[in-house]
Write a structure and sequence with these properties.
With 38 residues, the protein is an all-alpha fold. The chain has one helix at 3-34. It is rod-shaped, with a radius of gyration of 15 Å. It starts with a helix and ends with a helix. 0% of the residues are buried.
Length: 38
């Protein structure tokens, strides 16, 4: 396994998790204005 590839993969997964958490916070804060998203 290439160390560089492993680092990129880890960084990518971390970035996706952070983005999802950020979007979840935005939806929770602004959900009343947007309405039900489902």
């Amino acid at each position: 396994m290439n160390i560089k590839l492993l680092k990129l993969l880890t960084l990518g997964v971390y970035s996706v998790m952070v983005a999802i958490n950020y979007l979840a916070e935005l939806l929770r804060l602004g959900g009343k204005d947007i309405g039900e998203i489902s």
